[in-house]
Design brief:
OB fold (Dihydrolipoamide Acetyltransferase, E2P); 5-stranded antiparallel β-sheet; alpha/beta; Isoleucyl-tRNA Synthetase, Domain 1
Amino acid sequence: MDRYFLTTAIYYINDRPHLGSVSETIAADFLARYQRKLGKQVLFSTGTDEHSQKVERTALALGQPVEQYTQEAAASWKALFDKLEISYSRFIRTTDADHIRVVQEIFQKLYDQGDIYKGSYDGWYCVKDEAFLLESDLVDGKCPHCGLEVQHVSEINYFFRLSKYQDALLAWYEQHPDFVQPQMRYNELVNVMRGGLRDVSVSRSTVKWGIPVPFDTDQTVYVWFDALINYATVAGYGTDRFAVDWPPDLHLIGKDITRFHGIIWPAMLMALNAPLPKHIFAHGFWNFEGEKMSKSLGNVVDPSALIASLSNLIGIDEPMAVDTLRYYLSREGTYGLDVDFSSQRLLLRFNTDLANDLGNLLNRTLNMFGKFRPQITGYPLEPKPALSELFTTTVAAVSSDYGSLQFSAGLEKTWMLINVLNKMIEDDKPWALARDGNGEALATHLATLLTGIWYIANMIEPCMPTVSSRILTAIRRSQVPWGALQWRGPGAELPESTSTVLFPRVQPDQLEEFLAAQATRKTVPGTGTPSPEPPRTESGLISIDDVTKLQLRVATILEAERVPKTDKLIQLHVKVGSEERTIVAGIGKHYDPAVLIGKQIVIVANLQPRSLRGITSQGMLLAASAGDEMALLTPMSPIPDGAEIH
């Protein structure tokens, strides 16, 4: 059996999982499931990066042993990936015993052969990004990546002879023009190498939370050197399995870490005389309103909270909400480029693509089998030969798209087939065939629908495994390898006669309710966060100019009532100084309107008005939430309403 080895980058445990960070792993899972559909044995790894100065500092700030902090943080990442149906082969942690052994073994080998040497480092260091920086790298004296202050560091370290491999790396890139994708990332790295490579520090003397250098316990292995080696650990470096599983077919990473993966890591592998990865794909970022999702900007989208909101709003279970999110992330935009997240677009995709197109097709087909079963009894259930070529060629085209990580293009072609079948229903008018007693034509029509849905359910499995499984259960067909899809009739076993509503359509009032709930949960500097996070020192900083943009004022609630036909929205009539205004807030599941009257709250007073359920909302109240708990921000003692928060 052919093998396929796929990896994601591993995630800093200091970062709370958000939509931008988990989308990489969802894309990798899409590809892993597709490769399994091709009949390959897939090794798929993801995990957590747990050694660094900032992890040590965070644990200290929380008053926890660093081992306890890393254990709990890694468990939260793994739990989320399990919820998202990530079919990883291994969830690796850099604190795993076999990884520590492999890192020390590689460090020792490179030192023994002269590729690592002891030297002194004097320069700049960014704690947030765990990055050594040149003076020329800085932008206005700050880190070019995160924009935060950097530290001047002088210490004795061990260095890797990266400069030794400059020519070999350039030659490799010239011989393998598809080594790094997209092309723009390839060009960036070639330009960096042509500008000259310097040896890089691979240890720290001032950081204790890390893997000890095997021959010098006063030094710990630099976190990036440690993290990159996780891929070799997964493949069994130092064991017989390594010759079988190595090299990776694909490293899937973010565009911000291409230099580590595209220059330093290949040079390390050259020094180890190990084969290089076949491909590296550097994807773009998920943005919010045109800006990269970032905790410091307050525009992150919590995937767990989003899944729960979708489930509660639409009335679907969590696995279906997960598949809805997976579909949106895979369909919205070209993979590799930056894409904007939009709650409205998410629900639009749900209504049009899932409810109207796919869900409607399945419901109509099942209903017709129930209604017209007597009329087709005794007739051959063979699909229309005319559609065989269309479905066969589309499967091949979708396969090509999936294999090249063009998930959106592949799904678009799949939806073209869905639309063909929906149009066929309108054109054939099966109700008229039944009325006229044309049982043979009706049987052909229904067999075509059933065969087409079988194709489609198999084609969407890498993206939406739960949806695929439930469709196949409803039509009594099986999940098959990609190459086993054949344009043939369903056989003797026909679907049940009852319809299956997989995707209940979202109504306009539900959309407004969802948007209000998302706005309430959204993290904005000064409003609290959807769930507790550790105190921050270096990260999460904003300028005084950002603070002054927000007009935070105390308001007194004069009246409160539920918005009709919703269980989350409450209409508040508040007094802000000499002014009275209306605010609609998604707090109805946490507060009864009666207890709110007379309460003082804190609002964002200069928020642009928006319409919710036909009510103009003039501001946003501030609230903190943790899990299912919510608390409004209120003054500790009475204060004149309209008072400004400084």
